[in-house]
Structure to design on (276 residues):
């Protein structure tokens, strides 16, 4: 064990939150950038949309985890 | 030209100045052979990711979930550098891209399978993820055959799911909402794969 269980819970929580926020910034920016050209840049646009879906899943899981503690 | 030579360009260089020879550089242009397409720094980094698998399983076996997460993170971290190495050493190739995708599949597949076998992740969605990964590989091979060379279809959406999969390994090892994340991962992966199969096998090949 590197850190205590309690510290690990908070470390994981902040890590997930940080990843989700970074991901939200990255794919949110991509989404807005590709939206006007969504027909030509279909794959890029779809990728950013799925990235935002992953962010939503990540945040939902985080909330569920803390509600179950 | 060394810095001493630059400084004494139009003057007689005194005896006490020691001119250092030019540092030896790796001449990669001479290695532009068939072998270099396969054995190069980028592919070496990709291959090194396999060395995280055994420690990962050993740490899980000993109940050291945190160290197992470190191994999974290291595996994901190395994934960031193979592309950088390919650009730096100018050794990008269709095979390298395909090997990178295969290494993703093998590394995360082994980690997920081990966690499911160990009882840390639910096995039904994990079997689903592995089956979808297999279908994805077959579709990519068919796409490569369709295009006519060793190439890799770039799916921006699947790249997100691959990143999500490595987090799933972490969540499984740390027992953080493993069931929820596993089912979410398999659902979004199935959706994206249906889209990618249409793009790879039905839509016209991009020029």
């Amino acid at each position: 064990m590197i850190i205590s269980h309690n510290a690990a819970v908070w470390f994981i929580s902040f890590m997930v939150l940080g990843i989700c926020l970074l991901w939200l910034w990255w794919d949110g920016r991509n989404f807005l950038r590709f939206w006007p050209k969504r027909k030509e840049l279909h794959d890029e646009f779809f990728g950013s949309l799925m990235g935002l879906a992953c962010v939503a899943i990540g945040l939902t899981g985080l909330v569920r985890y803390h509600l179950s503690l | 030209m060394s810095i001493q030579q630059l400084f004494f360009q139009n003057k007689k260089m005194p005896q006490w100045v020691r001119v250092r020879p030019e540092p030896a550089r790796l001449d990669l242009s001479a290695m532009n052979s068939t072998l270099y397409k396969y054995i190069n720094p980028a592919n070496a980094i990709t291959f090194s990711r396999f060395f995280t698998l055994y420690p990962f399983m050993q740490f899980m076996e000993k109940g050291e979930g945190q160290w197992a997460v470190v191994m999974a993170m290291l595996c994901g971290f190395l994934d960031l550098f193979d592309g950088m190495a390919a650009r730096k050493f100018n050794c990008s190739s269709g095979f390298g891209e395909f090997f990178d995708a295969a290494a993703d599949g093998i590394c995360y597949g082994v980690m997920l399978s081990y966690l499911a076998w160990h009882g840390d992740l639910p096995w039904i969605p994990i079997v689903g993820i592995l089956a979808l990964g297999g279908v994805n590989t077959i579709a990519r091979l068919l796409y490569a055959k369709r295009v006519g060379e060793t190439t890799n279809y770039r799916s921006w959406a699947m790249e997100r799911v691959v990143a999500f999969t490595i987090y799933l390994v972490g969540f499984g090892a740390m027992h953080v909402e493993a069931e929820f994340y596993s089912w979410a991962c398999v659902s979004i992966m199935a959706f994206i794969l249906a889209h990618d199969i249409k793009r790879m096998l039905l839509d016209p090949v991009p020029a």
